[in-house]
Amino acid sequence: MSILITGANGKLGSLIIGQLLKIVPPEHLIAGVRRLESGKQYEQQGITVRLCDYDQPESLEAAFAGASQILLISSSHHDDTIRLRQHIHAVEAAKKSKAGHLLYTSFAYPEHGAGSPVHLHLATEYAIRTTGIPYTFLRNALYTDFLGALDLGAALDKGQLEIPPGDWTFNAVTRRDLALATAAILSQPEVHKNKTYELTAPSPWTFRDVAAALTELTGKPVDLLPDPEISHWIYSFLRSIDTSSTSNQLEQLIGMPLTSLKDSIRPFIA
Ligand SMILES: NC(=O)c1ccc[n+]([C@@H]2O[C@H](COP(=O)([O-])OP(=O)(O)OC[C@H]3O[C@@H](n4cnc5c(N)ncnc54)[C@H](OP(=O)(O)O)[C@@H]3O)[C@@H](O)[C@H]2O)c1
């Protein structure tokens, strides 16, 4: 068994490797990094480090050689057209290296969304399907980090969380829970081949729940203030994806309840 993880230095990649180290020996892991010198901490743990740059197809072919499972963590480039090209480089490299299993961090419920990122993730899923390589699509929900864009500190100061009017529901989850599920899948590959998982929360929450959690965490009363004048990129983004559909697959994969909304919010009000 040799599991290669691309984007190994990223926030999700590091958490996944951290979880994997609890269940598989380090010799079974290969950390794919954009600059070799950034992989020193992995080498010190006994993990093989390989250059893995989505803009350098030859680096991907060399990196993927001999890996029994490849986890392609989606690129963080801001331009989705470039991201698609980067992902195609990785998919072609996986095909050339005759990979036995290609896993991809997609986005939850892409068929329900209309924005550019959802097209990117569906296009990548379809590109992977063209190779005939056994796949697993990890359709990750919105990270709870989006709450950090809402300026919860200001909401606490004012006692009011200002939001655009409308029915907003969320299925956001923490990277930690996603990493637990991904590590569980990677450690039992045969069970998860050719499966698509919607890794979302089992039940949605609303801005009213966020306000209540803020109050519970700090003791300060926080109300909702719908304001039609609010314009912030986060709301246009949220409107372009499906944030309300839920699934219990993430909870089943990790075998315990997900991180609570209160605990997810805590880091953003520290
Ligand atoms: N579900 C959500 O709400 C959500 C939110 C944001 C992002 N995402 C997606 O989820 C992915 C993982 O999230 P994250 O929090 O771990 O992001 P992150 O911390 O920004 O990590 C992204 C990783 O991708 C690597 N990378 C970027 N460009 C690359 C390239 N050209 N070749 C090879 N590697 C490259 C980065 O390498 P370096 O370490 O060298 O920079 C980094 O390790 C993101 O990349 C993005 O596609 C999802």
From TrEMBL:
NmrA-like domain location: 3-223
Pfam families documented for this protein: NmrA (PF05368)
Query: InterPro entries from the xrefs?
Result: NmrA-like, NmrA-type_oxidoreductase
Its recorded name reads NAD(P)H-binding protein
Highest lineage ranks of the organism? Bacteria, Bacillati, Bacillota, Bacilli, Bacillales
